[in-house]
Design a protein that fits this description.
609 residues, double-stranded DNA binding, Endonuclease, Chain A, phosphoprotein, 18% strand, Tyrosyl-DNA phosphodiesterase 1, single-stranded DNA binding, globular, alpha+beta, 12 helices, disordered N terminus, eight-stranded mixed beta sheet
Protein backbone atom coordinates (compact mmCIF):
# COMPACT_ATOMS: atom_id res chain seq x y z
CA UNK A 1 0.00 0.00 0.00
CA UNK A 2 1.12 3.57 -0.63
CA UNK A 3 0.05 6.70 1.17
CA UNK A 4 1.21 10.31 1.23
CA UNK A 5 0.61 11.98 4.59
CA UNK A 6 1.98 14.88 6.59
CA UNK A 7 4.78 12.59 7.75
CA UNK A 8 5.90 11.38 4.34
CA UNK A 9 5.14 8.69 1.79
CA UNK A 10 5.28 5.05 2.75
CA UNK A 11 4.37 1.71 1.26
CA UNK A 12 3.81 -1.73 2.72
CA UNK A 13 3.71 -4.93 0.72
CA UNK A 14 1.43 -7.84 1.45
CA UNK A 15 4.47 -9.92 2.34
CA UNK A 16 4.97 -7.71 5.38
CA UNK A 17 1.60 -8.54 6.85
CA UNK A 18 1.69 -9.97 10.34
CA UNK A 19 0.53 -13.54 10.79
CA UNK A 20 0.80 -13.45 14.55
CA UNK A 21 -2.06 -13.28 17.01
CA UNK A 22 0.26 -10.71 18.00
CA UNK A 23 3.22 -10.28 20.10
CA UNK A 24 3.73 -8.07 23.07
CA UNK A 25 5.45 -6.11 20.38
CA UNK A 26 9.00 -6.41 21.66
CA UNK A 27 9.59 -9.61 19.73
CA UNK A 28 13.21 -10.79 19.98
CA UNK A 29 15.02 -10.69 16.68
CA UNK A 30 17.79 -13.10 15.77
CA UNK A 31 20.13 -10.22 15.06
CA UNK A 32 22.17 -8.23 17.54
CA UNK A 33 22.86 -4.58 18.15
CA UNK A 34 26.10 -2.95 19.04
CA UNK A 35 26.27 -1.43 22.47
CA UNK A 36 23.58 1.18 22.85
CA UNK A 37 24.31 4.80 23.27
CA UNK A 38 27.95 4.94 22.26
CA UNK A 39 27.84 4.44 18.51
CA UNK A 40 30.23 1.53 18.69
CA UNK A 41 30.62 -0.97 15.94
CA UNK A 42 32.15 -3.64 18.11
CA UNK A 43 32.13 -4.70 21.72
CA UNK A 44 29.14 -5.61 23.84
CA UNK A 45 26.02 -6.61 21.95
CA UNK A 46 22.53 -7.52 23.05
CA UNK A 47 19.60 -9.18 21.31
CA UNK A 48 16.68 -6.84 20.79
CA UNK A 49 13.52 -6.16 18.82
CA UNK A 50 13.54 -4.98 15.22
CA UNK A 51 12.17 -1.62 16.34
CA UNK A 52 15.01 -1.22 18.84
CA UNK A 53 17.49 -2.15 16.16
CA UNK A 54 16.20 0.62 13.90
CA UNK A 55 16.19 3.10 16.78
CA UNK A 56 19.80 2.28 17.53
CA UNK A 57 20.76 2.54 13.87
CA UNK A 58 19.14 5.95 13.48
CA UNK A 59 20.79 7.16 16.68
CA UNK A 60 24.22 6.03 15.51
CA UNK A 61 23.69 7.01 11.84
CA UNK A 62 21.09 9.80 11.74
CA UNK A 63 19.42 10.89 8.52
CA UNK A 64 19.45 14.68 8.47
CA UNK A 65 16.21 16.43 7.61
CA UNK A 66 17.55 17.84 4.35
CA UNK A 67 19.14 14.56 3.27
CA UNK A 68 16.98 13.29 0.40
CA UNK A 69 19.42 10.66 -0.78
CA UNK A 70 17.55 7.95 1.15
CA UNK A 71 14.72 6.03 -0.45
CA UNK A 72 11.75 5.97 1.91
CA UNK A 73 9.63 3.39 0.16
CA UNK A 74 9.49 0.15 2.10
CA UNK A 75 8.28 -2.02 -0.80
CA UNK A 76 5.91 -1.84 -3.80
CA UNK A 77 2.21 -1.90 -3.01
CA UNK A 78 0.69 -5.11 -4.25
CA UNK A 79 -2.48 -5.45 -2.22
CA UNK A 80 -6.00 -4.17 -2.67
CA UNK A 81 -6.46 -0.75 -1.06
CA UNK A 82 -9.44 1.02 0.40
CA UNK A 83 -9.03 4.62 1.48
CA UNK A 84 -9.60 5.61 5.10
CA UNK A 85 -10.13 9.34 4.76
CA UNK A 86 -8.48 11.45 7.43
CA UNK A 87 -6.61 8.61 9.09
CA UNK A 88 -3.50 8.72 6.94
CA UNK A 89 -3.51 4.99 6.24
CA UNK A 90 -4.82 2.56 3.64
CA UNK A 91 -6.21 -0.81 4.57
CA UNK A 92 -5.89 -4.22 3.06
CA UNK A 93 -9.18 -5.87 2.24
CA UNK A 94 -8.24 -8.65 4.65
CA UNK A 95 -8.19 -6.69 7.88
CA UNK A 96 -8.56 -9.64 10.23
CA UNK A 97 -5.51 -11.24 11.80
CA UNK A 98 -5.72 -15.02 11.89
CA UNK A 99 -6.65 -16.44 15.24
CA UNK A 100 -4.13 -18.60 17.08
CA UNK A 101 -6.41 -21.59 17.42
CA UNK A 102 -3.80 -23.73 15.69
CA UNK A 103 -1.56 -23.59 18.72
CA UNK A 104 -1.16 -26.91 20.57
CA UNK A 105 -3.79 -27.11 23.26
CA UNK A 106 -1.96 -29.38 25.66
CA UNK A 107 1.59 -28.08 25.62
CA UNK A 108 3.08 -28.60 29.05
CA UNK A 109 5.68 -26.38 30.66
CA UNK A 110 9.12 -27.88 30.57
CA UNK A 111 11.60 -27.40 33.34
CA UNK A 112 13.69 -24.28 32.97
CA UNK A 113 17.07 -25.18 31.61
CA UNK A 114 19.92 -24.31 33.91
CA UNK A 115 22.88 -23.10 31.96
CA UNK A 116 26.50 -23.11 32.98
CA UNK A 117 28.16 -21.36 30.11
CA UNK A 118 30.79 -23.08 28.02
CA UNK A 119 32.56 -20.84 25.54
CA UNK A 120 31.90 -21.20 21.82
CA UNK A 121 34.99 -21.95 19.79
CA UNK A 122 35.28 -18.43 18.40
CA UNK A 123 35.26 -16.76 21.79
CA UNK A 124 38.50 -15.83 23.56
CA UNK A 125 38.98 -17.52 26.89
CA UNK A 126 40.10 -14.36 28.68
CA UNK A 127 38.12 -13.35 31.74
CA UNK A 128 38.12 -9.88 33.20
CA UNK A 129 39.50 -9.18 36.62
CA UNK A 130 37.57 -7.13 39.13
CA UNK A 131 39.53 -3.97 38.42
CA UNK A 132 39.55 -4.07 34.63
CA UNK A 133 37.01 -3.67 31.85
CA UNK A 134 36.89 -4.71 28.20
CA UNK A 135 39.07 -2.68 25.84
CA UNK A 136 35.96 -1.85 23.81
CA UNK A 137 34.46 0.15 26.67
CA UNK A 138 34.16 3.87 26.11
CA UNK A 139 33.41 6.43 28.82
CA UNK A 140 29.90 5.85 30.07
CA UNK A 141 27.24 8.39 30.94
CA UNK A 142 27.51 9.74 34.45
CA UNK A 143 24.60 10.19 36.81
CA UNK A 144 24.64 11.61 40.26
CA UNK A 145 23.92 8.64 42.45
CA UNK A 146 23.10 8.42 46.10
CA UNK A 147 26.00 9.54 48.29
CA UNK A 148 26.75 10.19 51.92
CA UNK A 149 25.45 13.74 51.59
CA UNK A 150 22.02 12.51 50.51
CA UNK A 151 19.52 11.36 53.08
CA UNK A 152 19.00 7.90 51.68
CA UNK A 153 16.74 6.92 54.52
CA UNK A 154 14.42 9.81 53.70
CA UNK A 155 14.54 8.96 50.00
CA UNK A 156 13.43 5.41 50.66
CA UNK A 157 11.13 5.87 53.62
CA UNK A 158 10.37 9.48 54.46
CA UNK A 159 8.12 11.05 51.86
CA UNK A 160 7.21 8.04 49.76
CA UNK A 161 5.17 5.44 51.64
CA UNK A 162 4.30 3.81 48.30
CA UNK A 163 7.97 3.21 47.45
CA UNK A 164 7.11 4.03 43.85
CA UNK A 165 9.79 5.88 41.88
CA UNK A 166 10.59 6.98 38.36
CA UNK A 167 14.05 6.69 36.83
CA UNK A 168 16.40 9.64 36.49
CA UNK A 169 16.31 11.40 33.14
CA UNK A 170 19.27 13.18 31.58
CA UNK A 171 18.47 16.62 30.18
CA UNK A 172 15.63 17.74 32.49
CA UNK A 173 15.67 20.11 35.47
CA UNK A 174 17.46 18.68 38.49
CA UNK A 175 14.42 19.17 40.71
CA UNK A 176 12.64 16.48 38.68
CA UNK A 177 15.41 13.99 39.43
CA UNK A 178 15.68 14.70 43.15
CA UNK A 179 13.36 11.85 44.11
CA UNK A 180 14.18 9.60 41.16
CA UNK A 181 16.51 6.60 40.94
CA UNK A 182 19.14 5.34 38.52
CA UNK A 183 20.10 1.66 38.46
CA UNK A 184 23.39 2.65 40.12
CA UNK A 185 21.40 4.04 43.05
CA UNK A 186 19.49 0.78 43.40
CA UNK A 187 22.72 -1.25 43.39
CA UNK A 188 24.55 1.20 45.66
CA UNK A 189 26.17 -0.14 48.86
CA UNK A 190 24.09 2.45 50.72
CA UNK A 191 21.08 0.25 50.02
CA UNK A 192 22.79 -2.86 51.37
CA UNK A 193 25.98 -4.92 51.33
CA UNK A 194 25.39 -7.21 48.40
CA UNK A 195 25.92 -10.97 48.72
CA UNK A 196 24.33 -12.08 45.45
CA UNK A 197 21.64 -10.96 43.02
CA UNK A 198 19.23 -12.14 40.34
CA UNK A 199 18.16 -10.03 37.36
CA UNK A 200 15.00 -10.95 35.45
CA UNK A 201 14.59 -9.13 32.16
CA UNK A 202 13.83 -9.10 28.44
CA UNK A 203 16.66 -7.17 26.75
CA UNK A 204 20.06 -7.42 28.46
CA UNK A 205 23.50 -5.95 27.81
CA UNK A 206 25.68 -7.96 30.19
CA UNK A 207 28.77 -5.76 29.92
CA UNK A 208 26.73 -2.64 30.68
CA UNK A 209 24.89 -4.36 33.53
CA UNK A 210 28.12 -5.41 35.25
CA UNK A 211 29.32 -1.80 35.15
CA UNK A 212 26.22 -0.63 36.98
CA UNK A 213 27.25 -2.58 40.07
CA UNK A 214 29.73 -0.86 42.40
CA UNK A 215 33.30 -2.02 41.93
CA UNK A 216 33.21 -4.03 45.14
CA UNK A 217 30.11 -5.99 44.03
CA UNK A 218 31.06 -6.81 40.44
CA UNK A 219 32.29 -10.31 41.23
CA UNK A 220 29.37 -11.25 43.48
CA UNK A 221 27.22 -14.12 42.13
CA UNK A 222 24.76 -12.84 39.52
CA UNK A 223 21.93 -14.87 37.99
CA UNK A 224 20.37 -13.56 34.77
CA UNK A 225 16.91 -14.92 33.93
CA UNK A 226 16.01 -14.46 30.27
CA UNK A 227 13.88 -15.86 27.47
CA UNK A 228 16.33 -15.82 24.56
CA UNK A 229 16.47 -18.62 22.00
CA UNK A 230 18.75 -19.69 19.19
CA UNK A 231 21.11 -16.96 17.90
CA UNK A 232 20.00 -14.44 20.51
CA UNK A 233 20.64 -16.95 23.26
CA UNK A 234 24.08 -17.74 21.86
CA UNK A 235 24.88 -14.03 21.82
CA UNK A 236 23.80 -13.64 25.45
CA UNK A 237 26.02 -16.59 26.36
CA UNK A 238 28.93 -14.97 24.57
CA UNK A 239 28.35 -11.74 26.50
CA UNK A 240 28.32 -13.59 29.81
CA UNK A 241 31.41 -15.68 29.14
CA UNK A 242 34.06 -13.23 30.42
CA UNK A 243 32.38 -13.05 33.84
CA UNK A 244 32.89 -16.13 36.00
CA UNK A 245 30.29 -14.97 38.53
CA UNK A 246 27.46 -14.77 35.97
CA UNK A 247 25.03 -17.65 35.50
CA UNK A 248 22.19 -17.78 32.98
CA UNK A 249 18.73 -19.26 33.41
CA UNK A 250 16.48 -19.63 30.38
CA UNK A 251 12.74 -19.25 30.97
CA UNK A 252 10.88 -21.65 28.73
CA UNK A 253 8.48 -20.08 26.25
CA UNK A 254 6.48 -22.96 24.84
CA UNK A 255 3.61 -20.89 23.40
CA UNK A 256 4.36 -19.04 20.16
CA UNK A 257 5.10 -15.31 20.21
CA UNK A 258 5.61 -15.16 23.96
CA UNK A 259 8.42 -13.22 25.64
CA UNK A 260 10.12 -13.19 29.01
CA UNK A 261 9.08 -9.61 29.69
CA UNK A 262 9.29 -9.58 33.50
CA UNK A 263 11.68 -6.99 34.93
CA UNK A 264 12.70 -7.73 38.51
CA UNK A 265 15.78 -7.65 40.73
CA UNK A 266 16.32 -9.87 43.76
CA UNK A 267 19.10 -8.40 45.91
CA UNK A 268 20.42 -10.48 48.80
CA UNK A 269 22.42 -8.46 51.34
CA UNK A 270 24.31 -9.24 54.49
CA UNK A 271 21.60 -7.13 56.14
CA UNK A 272 18.60 -8.80 54.49
CA UNK A 273 16.79 -8.96 51.14
CA UNK A 274 15.32 -6.43 48.73
CA UNK A 275 12.92 -6.94 45.78
CA UNK A 276 12.77 -4.44 42.92
CA UNK A 277 10.00 -4.64 40.29
CA UNK A 278 10.40 -2.18 37.44
CA UNK A 279 9.84 -1.47 33.73
CA UNK A 280 13.37 -0.94 32.31
CA UNK A 281 15.38 -3.26 30.12
CA UNK A 282 18.96 -3.81 31.25
CA UNK A 283 20.46 -1.60 28.57
CA UNK A 284 21.84 1.92 28.65
CA UNK A 285 19.05 3.53 26.61
CA UNK A 286 16.33 2.47 29.04
CA UNK A 287 17.96 4.29 31.97
CA UNK A 288 18.89 7.46 30.07
CA UNK A 289 16.04 9.61 28.71
CA UNK A 290 12.88 7.56 29.12
CA UNK A 291 10.09 7.59 31.68
CA UNK A 292 10.30 4.32 33.63
CA UNK A 293 8.70 3.07 36.84
CA UNK A 294 10.22 1.31 39.86
CA UNK A 295 8.78 -0.28 42.98
CA UNK A 296 11.51 -0.71 45.57
CA UNK A 297 10.71 -2.94 48.51
CA UNK A 298 11.72 -2.26 52.11
CA UNK A 299 14.83 -4.02 53.36
CA UNK A 300 13.48 -7.37 54.47
CA UNK A 301 15.26 -8.76 57.57
CA UNK A 302 16.08 -12.42 57.96
CA UNK A 303 13.64 -14.39 60.08
CA UNK A 304 14.88 -16.07 63.26
CA UNK A 305 15.76 -19.74 62.99
CA UNK A 306 12.81 -22.02 63.56
CA UNK A 307 10.21 -19.60 62.18
CA UNK A 308 7.03 -21.22 60.89
CA UNK A 309 6.20 -21.46 57.20
CA UNK A 310 3.73 -18.58 57.33
CA UNK A 311 6.09 -16.27 59.23
CA UNK A 312 7.03 -13.03 57.56
CA UNK A 313 3.90 -12.83 55.39
CA UNK A 314 2.34 -9.47 54.61
CA UNK A 315 -1.33 -8.47 54.63
CA UNK A 316 -1.13 -8.59 50.84
CA UNK A 317 0.22 -12.17 50.70
CA UNK A 318 3.16 -10.79 48.75
CA UNK A 319 5.62 -13.35 50.07
CA UNK A 320 3.65 -16.44 49.12
CA UNK A 321 2.68 -14.92 45.77
CA UNK A 322 6.31 -14.12 44.91
CA UNK A 323 7.41 -17.63 45.85
CA UNK A 324 4.56 -19.04 43.73
CA UNK A 325 5.65 -16.91 40.78
CA UNK A 326 9.25 -18.11 41.05
CA UNK A 327 8.23 -21.76 41.28
CA UNK A 328 6.22 -21.39 38.04
CA UNK A 329 9.57 -21.36 36.18
CA UNK A 330 10.23 -24.96 37.29
CA UNK A 331 13.87 -24.05 37.88
CA UNK A 332 16.13 -25.53 40.58
CA UNK A 333 18.13 -22.30 40.66
CA UNK A 334 15.01 -20.19 41.17
CA UNK A 335 13.85 -22.66 43.80
CA UNK A 336 17.00 -21.62 45.70
CA UNK A 337 15.86 -18.00 45.49
CA UNK A 338 12.37 -19.00 46.61
CA UNK A 339 13.96 -20.63 49.66
CA UNK A 340 15.92 -17.43 50.35
CA UNK A 341 12.69 -15.42 50.24
CA UNK A 342 11.06 -17.92 52.59
CA UNK A 343 13.80 -17.17 55.14
CA UNK A 344 13.02 -13.44 55.24
CA UNK A 345 10.36 -11.26 56.82
CA UNK A 346 8.29 -9.57 54.08
CA UNK A 347 5.52 -8.43 56.42
CA UNK A 348 6.09 -4.71 55.74
CA UNK A 349 5.02 -5.07 52.10
CA UNK A 350 1.92 -3.06 51.18
CA UNK A 351 1.51 -3.96 47.51
CA UNK A 352 -0.08 -6.93 45.78
CA UNK A 353 1.90 -8.95 43.24
CA UNK A 354 0.30 -9.37 39.83
CA UNK A 355 2.03 -11.62 37.33
CA UNK A 356 1.58 -13.58 34.12
CA UNK A 357 3.29 -16.81 33.14
CA UNK A 358 2.85 -18.72 29.86
CA UNK A 359 0.23 -21.43 29.88
CA UNK A 360 -3.39 -22.45 29.39
CA UNK A 361 -5.16 -22.27 32.72
CA UNK A 362 -8.50 -23.68 33.80
CA UNK A 363 -10.52 -23.76 37.01
CA UNK A 364 -9.03 -21.90 39.97
CA UNK A 365 -5.70 -21.60 38.15
CA UNK A 366 -7.24 -19.00 35.83
CA UNK A 367 -7.50 -16.50 38.69
CA UNK A 368 -3.82 -16.69 39.57
CA UNK A 369 -2.52 -14.89 36.48
CA UNK A 370 -3.11 -12.00 34.10
CA UNK A 371 -6.23 -9.89 33.99
CA UNK A 372 -8.27 -12.48 35.89
CA UNK A 373 -5.78 -12.13 38.76
CA UNK A 374 -6.42 -8.37 38.70
CA UNK A 375 -10.17 -9.01 38.67
CA UNK A 376 -9.89 -11.30 41.69
CA UNK A 377 -7.78 -8.82 43.70
CA UNK A 378 -10.11 -5.92 42.92
CA UNK A 379 -13.11 -8.03 43.87
CA UNK A 380 -11.66 -9.15 47.20
CA UNK A 381 -9.76 -6.09 48.40
CA UNK A 382 -11.66 -3.04 47.14
CA UNK A 383 -15.12 -1.68 47.89
CA UNK A 384 -17.85 -0.38 45.60
CA UNK A 385 -17.84 3.39 45.05
CA UNK A 386 -20.98 5.49 44.51
CA UNK A 387 -21.56 6.18 40.79
CA UNK A 388 -18.53 4.05 39.98
CA UNK A 389 -19.72 3.53 36.41
CA UNK A 390 -18.60 7.14 35.80
CA UNK A 391 -15.08 6.37 37.05
CA UNK A 392 -13.05 5.73 33.87
CA UNK A 393 -10.23 3.26 33.34
CA UNK A 394 -6.80 4.42 32.19
CA UNK A 395 -4.26 2.21 30.45
CA UNK A 396 -0.81 3.61 29.64
CA UNK A 397 1.75 1.51 27.78
CA UNK A 398 4.57 1.48 25.23
CA UNK A 399 3.39 -1.25 22.88
CA UNK A 400 0.16 -2.66 21.51
CA UNK A 401 -0.82 -6.11 20.34
CA UNK A 402 -3.70 -7.19 18.14
CA UNK A 403 -7.05 -6.36 19.74
CA UNK A 404 -9.24 -7.97 17.09
CA UNK A 405 -11.74 -6.59 14.57
CA UNK A 406 -13.55 -4.40 17.10
CA UNK A 407 -13.67 -3.48 20.77
CA UNK A 408 -16.02 -6.34 21.64
CA UNK A 409 -13.39 -8.96 20.85
CA UNK A 410 -11.28 -8.34 23.98
CA UNK A 411 -10.68 -4.74 25.05
CA UNK A 412 -14.25 -3.84 25.98
CA UNK A 413 -15.29 -7.32 26.97
CA UNK A 414 -13.14 -9.53 29.20
CA UNK A 415 -10.31 -7.03 29.73
CA UNK A 416 -12.52 -4.11 30.69
CA UNK A 417 -14.64 -6.38 32.90
CA UNK A 418 -11.52 -7.09 34.94
CA UNK A 419 -10.44 -3.45 35.15
CA UNK A 420 -13.85 -2.10 36.21
CA UNK A 421 -14.31 -4.59 39.06
CA UNK A 422 -14.69 -2.89 42.45
CA UNK A 423 -15.65 -5.05 45.39
CA UNK A 424 -17.87 -8.11 45.44
CA UNK A 425 -21.16 -6.36 44.67
CA UNK A 426 -23.46 -8.67 42.74
CA UNK A 427 -24.67 -5.72 40.67
CA UNK A 428 -23.39 -5.98 37.13
CA UNK A 429 -22.23 -2.68 35.73
CA UNK A 430 -23.17 -1.55 32.27
CA UNK A 431 -19.63 -2.19 31.09
CA UNK A 432 -19.89 -0.14 27.87
CA UNK A 433 -20.68 2.95 29.98
CA UNK A 434 -17.30 2.87 31.72
CA UNK A 435 -14.96 5.10 29.66
CA UNK A 436 -11.55 3.79 28.65
CA UNK A 437 -8.67 6.23 28.16
CA UNK A 438 -5.56 4.76 26.53
CA UNK A 439 -2.32 6.78 26.72
CA UNK A 440 0.15 6.16 23.91
CA UNK A 441 2.57 8.71 22.36
CA UNK A 442 1.73 10.55 19.16
CA UNK A 443 4.18 11.04 16.31
CA UNK A 444 4.74 14.61 17.56
CA UNK A 445 5.33 13.35 21.12
CA UNK A 446 8.19 11.26 19.76
CA UNK A 447 9.47 13.87 17.31
CA UNK A 448 9.70 16.52 20.05
CA UNK A 449 11.20 14.20 22.66
CA UNK A 450 14.66 14.37 24.23
CA UNK A 451 15.83 11.49 22.06
CA UNK A 452 13.96 12.58 18.95
CA UNK A 453 12.71 9.97 16.53
CA UNK A 454 15.02 7.20 17.88
CA UNK A 455 12.81 7.15 20.99
CA UNK A 456 10.28 5.45 18.73
CA UNK A 457 12.41 2.33 18.68
CA UNK A 458 11.03 1.63 22.16
CA UNK A 459 7.42 2.09 21.00
CA UNK A 460 7.11 -0.87 18.64
CA UNK A 461 3.52 -0.51 17.39
CA UNK A 462 3.66 -1.78 13.80
CA UNK A 463 1.69 -0.66 10.78
CA UNK A 464 0.68 -4.28 10.17
CA UNK A 465 -1.15 -4.31 13.50
CA UNK A 466 -2.34 -0.70 13.49
CA UNK A 467 -4.02 -0.85 10.09
CA UNK A 468 -6.26 -3.68 11.27
CA UNK A 469 -7.63 -1.91 14.34
CA UNK A 470 -8.28 1.69 13.43
CA UNK A 471 -11.25 1.55 15.79
CA UNK A 472 -8.76 1.41 18.68
CA UNK A 473 -7.27 4.81 17.96
CA UNK A 474 -10.43 6.64 19.03
CA UNK A 475 -9.49 5.65 22.59
CA UNK A 476 -5.98 7.16 22.36
CA UNK A 477 -4.67 10.07 24.45
CA UNK A 478 -1.40 11.96 24.22
CA UNK A 479 1.61 11.53 26.49
CA UNK A 480 2.04 14.52 28.81
CA UNK A 481 3.98 14.51 32.09
CA UNK A 482 4.53 18.08 33.28
CA UNK A 483 3.83 16.84 36.82
CA UNK A 484 7.10 14.88 36.76
CA UNK A 485 9.00 17.02 34.23
CA UNK A 486 8.93 14.12 31.78
CA UNK A 487 6.71 15.26 28.91
CA UNK A 488 9.71 14.89 26.60
CA UNK A 489 10.98 11.62 28.11
CA UNK A 490 9.09 9.00 26.17
CA UNK A 491 7.32 6.41 28.31
CA UNK A 492 8.50 2.84 28.56
CA UNK A 493 6.60 2.61 31.86
CA UNK A 494 3.29 0.73 31.84
CA UNK A 495 0.53 1.76 34.25
CA UNK A 496 -3.19 1.14 34.71
CA UNK A 497 -5.56 2.89 37.11
CA UNK A 498 -9.17 3.76 37.95
CA UNK A 499 -9.54 7.54 38.43
CA UNK A 500 -12.58 9.49 39.57
CA UNK A 501 -14.53 11.53 36.99
CA UNK A 502 -12.63 14.68 38.08
CA UNK A 503 -9.29 12.80 38.09
CA UNK A 504 -8.53 13.95 41.66
CA UNK A 505 -8.77 10.44 43.13
CA UNK A 506 -7.83 6.91 42.05
CA UNK A 507 -9.36 3.67 43.31
CA UNK A 508 -6.19 1.72 42.49
CA UNK A 509 -2.89 1.97 40.60
CA UNK A 510 -0.81 -0.70 38.87
CA UNK A 511 2.74 -0.45 37.55
CA UNK A 512 3.75 -3.45 35.49
CA UNK A 513 5.78 -4.79 32.59
CA UNK A 514 2.54 -5.69 30.77
CA UNK A 515 1.71 -3.75 27.64
CA UNK A 516 -1.73 -3.64 26.04
CA UNK A 517 -1.83 -7.12 24.56
CA UNK A 518 -3.54 -10.46 24.97
CA UNK A 519 -0.10 -12.08 25.04
CA UNK A 520 0.66 -10.19 28.26
CA UNK A 521 -2.73 -10.15 30.01
CA UNK A 522 -4.22 -13.39 28.72
CA UNK A 523 -7.28 -14.15 26.59
CA UNK A 524 -10.19 -16.41 27.43
CA UNK A 525 -10.71 -19.50 25.29
CA UNK A 526 -13.09 -22.47 25.18
CA UNK A 527 -16.18 -20.47 26.02
CA UNK A 528 -14.49 -18.68 28.87
CA UNK A 529 -13.28 -21.81 30.66
CA UNK A 530 -9.60 -21.38 29.80
CA UNK A 531 -7.18 -18.45 30.02
CA UNK A 532 -4.26 -18.51 27.60
CA UNK A 533 -1.18 -16.39 28.35
CA UNK A 534 1.90 -16.22 26.15
CA UNK A 535 4.40 -14.12 28.13
CA UNK A 536 6.00 -13.66 31.53
CA UNK A 537 5.01 -10.31 33.09
CA UNK A 538 5.18 -8.85 36.58
CA UNK A 539 3.82 -5.79 38.35
CA UNK A 540 2.62 -4.46 41.69
CA UNK A 541 -0.87 -3.23 42.55
CA UNK A 542 -1.51 -0.39 45.01
CA UNK A 543 -4.85 -0.59 46.85
CA UNK A 544 -6.04 1.99 49.43
CA UNK A 545 -6.99 -0.65 52.00
CA UNK A 546 -3.40 -1.91 52.22
CA UNK A 547 -2.27 1.61 53.18
CA UNK A 548 -4.79 2.02 55.98
CA UNK A 549 -7.27 4.07 53.95
CA UNK A 550 -10.95 3.21 54.37
CA UNK A 551 -12.14 5.79 51.85
CA UNK A 552 -11.79 3.41 48.90
CA UNK A 553 -9.42 5.73 47.04
CA UNK A 554 -6.11 7.60 47.04
CA UNK A 555 -5.93 11.31 46.37
CA UNK A 556 -3.76 12.11 43.35
CA UNK A 557 -0.65 14.11 44.14
CA UNK A 558 -0.78 17.43 42.28
CA UNK A 559 2.94 17.53 41.53
CA UNK A 560 5.00 14.34 41.67
CA UNK A 561 8.04 16.08 43.18
CA UNK A 562 6.26 18.70 45.25
CA UNK A 563 7.14 19.32 48.87
CA UNK A 564 5.38 18.20 52.03
CA UNK A 565 2.34 20.43 51.59
CA UNK A 566 0.30 17.50 50.27
CA UNK A 567 -0.90 14.53 52.35
CA UNK A 568 1.65 11.73 52.47
CA UNK A 569 -1.04 9.34 51.22
CA UNK A 570 -1.50 11.28 47.95
CA UNK A 571 -0.41 8.99 45.15
CA UNK A 572 2.38 10.22 42.81
CA UNK A 573 0.93 9.51 39.37
CA UNK A 574 3.89 10.23 37.03
CA UNK A 575 1.91 11.84 34.18
CA UNK A 576 -0.76 14.48 33.76
CA UNK A 577 -4.44 13.95 34.52
CA UNK A 578 -6.86 14.20 32.87
CA UNK A 579 -5.19 12.89 29.72
CA UNK A 580 -5.75 14.82 26.49
CA UNK A 581 -7.43 12.96 23.66
CA UNK A 582 -5.78 12.87 20.24
CA UNK A 583 -6.70 15.78 18.00
CA UNK A 584 -7.86 15.35 14.42
CA UNK A 585 -4.28 15.62 13.12
CA UNK A 586 -2.64 13.42 15.76
CA UNK A 587 -1.41 9.97 14.81
CA UNK A 588 -0.13 7.19 17.07
CA UNK A 589 3.57 6.49 16.70
CA UNK A 590 4.15 3.64 14.25
CA UNK A 591 7.73 2.44 14.22
CA UNK A 592 8.06 0.89 10.76
CA UNK A 593 6.98 3.75 8.50
CA UNK A 594 9.09 6.83 7.64
CA UNK A 595 8.62 10.34 9.03
CA UNK A 596 10.29 12.80 6.70
CA UNK A 597 8.13 15.95 6.60
CA UNK A 598 9.33 17.46 9.88
CA UNK A 599 12.67 17.19 11.75
CA UNK A 600 13.01 15.92 15.29
CA UNK A 601 14.78 17.72 18.14
CA UNK A 602 18.13 16.72 16.65
CA UNK A 603 17.29 17.85 13.13
CA UNK A 604 16.81 14.31 11.83
CA UNK A 605 14.22 12.24 9.97
CA UNK A 606 13.01 8.71 10.73
CA UNK A 607 13.78 6.22 7.97
CA UNK A 608 13.23 2.63 9.19
CA UNK A 609 15.47 0.87 6.70
Amino acid sequence: MSQESEHGKWTVSSSDESTEENNDAEKPSTSSLSHSGHGKTSGSQYPCSEARKVGHKRKASPVKFNDRSFSIEISPAKIQRTSQEGLGWCLSSSDEEPESEGQPQHAQKEAVKEEKYSAPKKQPSRRFEDNELPVSQKPEKHYKVANEGQDTWDLLNGGNPFRFFVTKVKGIKSKYNSGALHIKDILSPLFGTLVSSAQFNYCIDVEWLIRQYPQEFRKKPLLIVHGEKRESKAELHAQAHPYENVRLCQAKLDIAFGTHHTKMMLLLYEEGLRVVIHTSNLIDDDWDQKTQGIWLSPLYPRLPHGATGSAGESVTNFKSDLIYYLTSYNSPTLKEWADIIQEHDLSETRVYLLGSTPGRYQGNQKEKWGHLRLRKLLKEYTSPIPAQESWPVIGQFSSIGSMGADQSKWLCSEFRESLVTLGSSVKTLAKPDVPIHLIYPTVDNVRQSLEGYPAGGSLPYSIQTAQKQLWLHSYFHKWSAETSGRSHAMPHIKTYMRPSPDFQKIAWFLVTSANLSKAAWGALEKNGTQLMIRSYELGVLFLPSAFGLDTGYFHVKKKMFSGSNEPVTSFPVPYDLPPEQYGSKDRPWIWNIPYTKAPDTHGNMWVPS
